From TrEMBL, chain A:
Protein name per the record: NADH:ubiquinone reductase (H+-translocating)
Principal EC category: oxidoreductase
A Pfam family: Proton_antipo_M
Organism: Propionibacterium ruminifibrarum
InterPro entries, A to Z: NADHpl_OxRdtase_5_subgr, ND/Mrp_TM, NU5C-like, Proton_antipo_N
Membrane topology, from the record: Multi-pass membrane protein
E.C. numbers: 1.6.5.3
Subcellular location: Endomembrane system; Membrane
Ranges where the NADH-Ubiquinone oxidoreductase (complex I) chain 5 N-terminal domain occurs: 83-133
Keywords per UniProt: Membrane, Oxidoreductase, Transmembrane, Transmembrane helix, Ubiquinone
Record's keyword annotation contains Oxidoreductase: yes
Coiled-coil region list: none
GO molecular function annotations of the record: NADH dehydrogenase (ubiquinone) activity; NADH dehydrogenase activity
TrEMBL record, chain B:
Keyword Membrane appears in the UniProt entry: yes
EC number: 7.1.1.-
Region span, Disordered: 268-306
Similarity-based family: Belongs to the complex I subunit 6 family.
Protein name as catalogued: NADH-quinone oxidoreductase subunit J
GO molecular function: NADH dehydrogenase (ubiquinone) activity; oxidoreductase activity; quinone binding
Alphabetical list of PANTHER family matching this protein: NADH-QUINONE OXIDOREDUCTASE SUBUNIT J, NADH-UBIQUINONE OXIDOREDUCTASE CHAIN 6
Keyword field: Cell membrane, Membrane, NAD, Oxidoreductase, Quinone, Transmembrane, Transmembrane helix, Ubiquinone
Keyword Transmembrane: yes
TM region(s), chain numbering: 6-28, 35-53, 59-86, 98-120, 147-169
Entry's localization field: Cell membrane
Automatic annotation (TrEMBL), chain C:
Main location: membrane
Gene Ontology molecular function, alphabetical: NADH dehydrogenase (quinone) (non-electrogenic) activity; quinone binding
The protein's name: NADH-quinone oxidoreductase subunit K
GO biological process: ATP synthesis coupled electron transport
Source organism (scientific name): Propionibacterium ruminifibrarum
HAMAP family: NDH1_NuoK
EC code(s) of this entry: 7.1.1.-
Reaction catalysis annotation: a quinone + NADH + 5 H(+)(in) = a quinol + NAD(+) + 4 H(+)(out)
Subcellular location: Cell membrane; Membrane
Length: 635, 306, 99
């Protein structure tokens, strides 16, 4: 039995019929902000921050309405209009509000609102703040299009919109070459994934004659196993691109070139979750192909370790957090690849991760802001006293991500580890090791940033962020503490009500052997981290001969690999094509031109400018035509 | 059967021959004025042919519109751009004349062939179509009925054409018009700098027997005032330059006056010789010498007069 | 009387006009030749009207006259304008649009 897809959408009523406003408001605001120009500099940020709040309120109202609806009527279709209609195929633009998409809408708008509000303070000195908010709203609108779409084509539109917005935002400070390059890299890497989604959509259109989730889910069981695997792998490719999973993870670390709120938005609420959403949405396909599901889980596992590895080695606070994102998304992919048992936990972890990762990113942004935009942790230290609020909220996020009992991450991650053991002991044990490494590198980050002696660069005086930045931090910190407790148990029911499956009882504190082992592993990681990073830390990155350290610092040589395997041959191909173009194509074209030019040079002489000659020529023509006609009649 | 010679046939043969001859005259005459006259003749001939074809309205319209209005425009234009400029008949484009002849002849052959091929029976005549209403009235029914939109379109076309002609022939004034004050200043300046006479140009000499603008005026000393004839006429070579002819009337008049005076004052015969020779005699002497010096010019002038 | 004669007269006049247009350099004479060709066509139409017993041919001739009048007005204005700028009424001088 599969999850989520057996609900047949019912027609929208009440507040659900205005679900399109969720998308329309941010996009309209973005349009206004871009159109008004400098006139909006004074109030653009306020309008820009109001949009996600308004969207959040709408999402909340709809969530309450769904909550009150009977379980069988919790998938609601909101038709907007018919986009393309042919004899036997129709593409509708319509929205699907169901338990899964409303959760995403809440996460996107909720966390998004906090990030937007935080950005008011963070970007206060940037002359392009209004444009920044316009781009943020495009991001939000595209992500909401993505999660509220009821078919793969519309999802693809949102998917591309997210890619565009991320390009604009990562390269927001485009005057910096590194930012421009990072934006380009993210865009291109995403395109690889987009290809997967496009091909998958084409295949679905060919196979099922429709791309809507309901039709695909209904028709999926009839397709062959080979097609199911192919579709699953294509969708996995798409998810890898958007969610920065191995092997398409390279863009994520460079994406740190964007302003920190963008990083928070990408990592916590919008972009990287899209891949998980896609895999969860397409569960009907993955349940049909064990191979595809296994591939998802393996990719997840690889990403857990790749991200953790990078997280252990980097000194840049944002890149460590980026590594941890990769790793945590890896957990979600792992869960999503475990079949129905894990899907709900993937979403659960996604929600809690959205809160604590946004919390930590915004906290890191506050630290950077206070330290003069320095991101090197070797220049931090002793900030616990300098920025008590930031430290306090960051610590909550830290406890949540390492899986400290009763914090948000504890519940979601433990469930995933449990489910991984259900798939096979290898998965489970590797997941536990991943949790231990997570604890280690997050402890490292905490030790280097907030504890120990001050290693500030001369002239840097940490200052505390203003309330507009602190309040979102506090709210997110509260979410990091209680998010797990609130959602635990309920979310499984919410997501599986549709199929009436048995919900296993969950406890506030697990007492199984696996839970204890996990806790032990996490504790080991913490202790190791504390012991190592209690020692003095150099201000400069020490040269290391250790292969693992160097690999981590160089992002596992993925860039070098890509350069060697894709870029260089590509360049050579381009060079060859250019030569072909210059000598073969241009030669043919220029030869043709020379020929035509010579011929027309001869023809040109007919045009001697004398009207009388033209008259004579016309007469000749008339005579010929007349002769042909008359002779034709005579013949 | 003996062909019956009808009025139509007579009209046709007369006017057809005239029309072809006039058309050839149009094409072959050297002077545009002659061409215009020939064209007018062709049109009148055609009008008569229309009349012979039961088209009285077109007959009138042809004369009014073509020979009246269109030809008038042609003649006006001709006067603007030089009424008697003679075309050089030397062909400048190589082979053009041969090509034109061959092309026109070929087209003619072709058309005659086509006409000969089309077997035309006895004409139906217009009696039935015209009926009781008469030609003009029937045409009016058609013009204001079936063809009313085409008619209105031609009205718009005519108005547009009139506007276009005005726009096209409206010369843009390049510098400001010279007012009286400026002209006076200019003339004075030219007099000061180049010695040009600041006074208005003298009128041409006008004689009762001739009333011609091609006779220059004479200055008090008997010399010819070059500025008194239009330069165009001078350039064309039609101006009288024979001083003898110019002064001859003066001498005659002078002698007549003298004779009358003598008669009145009762001068004795022979007294005349004792007096000083008068100005008229001096002029006559000068004229004689000039006539002797330029016989060729004088001959040309005589020819002109004829 | 056989209307073929009229048609052939019309053809002759047309060809004379055509010949004149091709041979004469004076813009006015060339223009008059065009008028001659138009008149030749008119004659043909009036003849056909007579042959077919309908007045439409005469109407057509009438319209040709009107259009020819408009054409003459504009054409002569153009000739005058050209003469003003180039001091020449020869069609061969208006050969800037060559090659």
């Amino acid at each position: 039995m599969t999850l989520l897809e057996t609900l047949t959408p019912v027609a929208a009523t009440g507040s659900l019929s205005i679900a399109w406003l969720l998308i329309a408001i941010p996009l309209a605001v973005a349009g206004i902000l871009l159109v008004v120009g400098r006139a909006g500099d004074a109030w653009g940020h306020l309008l820009g921050a109001a949009a996600p709040v308004a969207a959040f309120v709408i999402a909340l109202v709809e969530f309450v309405e769904l909550l009150g609806a009977p379980p069988a009527e919790r998938a609601v279709s909101v038709p907007v209009y018919t986009w393309a209609e042919t004899a036997d195929r129709t593409i509708e633009i319509s929205l699907l509000v169901d338990p899964l998409s409303i959760l995403f809408a809440l996460l996107v708008t909720g966390v998004g609102s906090l990030i937007f509000i935080y950005s008011i303070g963070y970007m206060v000195e940037d002359p392009k703040r209004r444009r920044f908010f316009a781009f943020l709203n495009i991001f939000l609108g595209a992500m909401l299009t993505l999660v509220l779409a009821d078919n793969y084509i519309m999802l693809f539109i949102g998917w591309e919109g997210v890619g565009l917005a991320s390009y604009l935002l990562i390269g927001f400070w485009q005057e910096r070459t590194s930012a421009a390059l990072a934006a380009k890299k993210a865009f291109l890497t995403n395109k690889v994934g987009d290809l997967g989604l496009l091909c998958a959509s084409f295949a679905m259109f060919a196979l099922f004659g429709s791309v809507s989730f309901a039709d695909v889910n209904a028709a999926a069981p009839d397709m062959s196993h080979g097609w199911a695997t192919a579709l699953g792998l294509l969708l996995l490719l798409a998810a890898c691109g958007k969610s920065a999973q191995v092997p398409l993870q390279v863009w994520l670390l460079d994406a740190m070139e964007g302003p920190t709120p963008v990083s928070a938005l990408i990592h916590a609420a919008t972009m990287v979750t899209a891949g998980v959403y896609l895999v969860v949405r397409s569960q009907a396909i993955f349940t049909l192909s064990d191979e595809a599901a296994l591939a998802v889980a393996v990719v997840g596992l690889c990403s857990i370790f790749a991200g953790a590895w990078i997280g252990c080695a980097k000194d840049d606070i944002k890149k460590v957090l980026a590594g941890s994102t990769m790793s945590q998304i890896g957990y979600m992919m792992l869960a999503a690849g475990l079949g129905p048992a894990g899907v709900a936990f993937a979403i659960f972890h996604l929600l809690t991760h959205g809160m604590f990762k946004a919390n930590m990113f915004l906290g890191a942004g506050a630290v950077m802001h206070g330290m003069g935009d320095d991101t090197d942790m070797r220049h931090f230290g002793a900030l616990a006293k300098g920025m008590p609020w930031v430290f306090g909220t960051f610590a909550m996020g830290y406890l949540a991500i390492i899986g400290c009992p009763f914090f948000a991450g504890y519940y979601s991650k433990d469930h995933i580890i449990n489910a991984a053991f259900g798939r096979g002991p290898v998965f489970g044990w590797l997941a536990i090791v991943g949790a231990a490494i997570t604890a280690f590198y997050m402890t490292r980050l905490m030790m280097m940033t907030f504890f120990g002696p001050s290693r500030h660069l001369p002239g840097v005086h940490p200052h505390r962020p203003g309330p507009v930045m602190v309040i979102p931090l506090v709210i997110l910190a509260i979410g990091s503490i209680i998010g797990g407790l609130v959602l635990n148990g309920w979310i499984q029911g919410w997501l599986s009500d549709a199929i009436g499956a048995e919900v296993e009882p969950v406890h506030i504190f697990e007492t199984s052997a696996i839970a204890w082992i996990t806790l032990l592993a996490v504790a080991c990681g913490i202790v190791l981290g504390v012991l190592i990073y209690r020692r003095p830390i150099a201000q400069e990155t020490p040269v290391s001969r250790n292969f693992f350290v160097n690999a981590g610092r160089n992002e596992l040589y993925a860039n070098a690999f890509n350069e060697a395997v894709f870029m260089r041959p590509g360049q050579r191909l381009c060079d060859g094509l250019e030569l072909t173009d210059r000598y073969v194509v241009d030669g043919a074209v220029n030869g043709g031109v020379t020929l035509a030019k010579g011929a027309s040079g001869l023809l040109r002489l007919l045009q001697n400018g004398y009207v009388r000659t033209y008259g004579a020529l016309m007469t000749c023509g008339a005579v010929i035509v007349g002769a042909v006609m008359i002779l034709g009649r005579l013949a | 059967m003996i062909p019956l010679l009808t009025a139509q046939a007579v009209a046709f043969w007369v006017f057809a021959v005239l029309a072809v001859a006039a058309a050839l005259g149009l094409v072959l005459s050297r002077k545009p004025v002659h061409s215009a006259l020939c064209l007018a003749a062709v049109m009148v001939c055609l009008a008569c042919l229309y009349a012979s074809l039961d088209a009285p309205f077109l007959f009138v319209a042809q004369i009014i519109v073509y020979t009246g209005a269109v030809m008038m425009l042609f003649v006006f234009t001709m006067m603007i751009i030089g009424v008697d400029s003679v075309d050089a008949m030397v062909e400048t484009i190589k082979g053009q004349r041969i090509a034109a002849t061959i092309g026109a002849a070929a087209l003619l052959v072709l058309l005659v062939l086509a006409v000969g091929h089309g077997i035309i029976t006895e004409p139906a005549g217009l009696d039935e179509a015209v009926g009781q209403a008469g030609n003009v009235r029937s045409l009016a029914y058609l013009v204001f009925g079936r063809y009313v939109f085409a008619f209105e379109a031609t009205a718009a076309l005519l108005i547009t054409a009139a506007l276009a002609a005005m726009v096209l022939s409206h010369g843009e004034r390049l510098r400001k018009k010279e007012r009286q004050k400026a002209r006076a200043a200019r003339r004075t300046r030219e007099y000061a700098e180049q010695g040009v006479d600041p006074a208005p140009l003298p009128n041409p000499g006008v004689y009762a027997r001739h009333n011609s603008a091609d006779h220059p005026a004479l200055l008090p000393d008997g010399s010819v005032a070059e500025g008194s004839v239009v330069p165009t006429l001078a350039a064309r070579g039609v101006v009288v330059v024979d001083r003898g002819r110019l002064v001859a009337p003066n001498i005659v008049a002078d002698e007549t006056i003298r004779a009358v005076k003598d008669e009145q004052h009762g001068l004795l015969p022979g007294e005349n010789e004792l007096r000083d020779p008068g100005p008229a005699a001096a002029i006559a002497a000068a004229a004689d010498s000039e006539a002797a010096s330029g016989p060729a010019e004088a001959g040309e002038n005589e020819e002109d007069e004829r | 009387m056989n209307p073929n004669a009229y048609i052939i007269l019309s053809a002759i006049l047309l060809c004379i006009g055509l010949f004149g247009f091709m041979v004469r350099r004076n813009a006015l004479i060339a223009f008059m030749s065009v008028e001659l060709m138009l008149n030749a066509a008119n004659l043909a139409m009036v003849t056909f009207s007579h042959v077919h017993g309908g007045l439409d041919g005469q109407i057509a001739a009438f319209f040709v006259m009107v259009v020819a009048a408009a054409e003459v007005v504009v054409g002569l204005a153009i000739i005058i304008t050209i003469f003003r700028t180039r001091q020449s009424a020869s069609v061969d001088d208006e050969n800037l649009l060559k090659h």
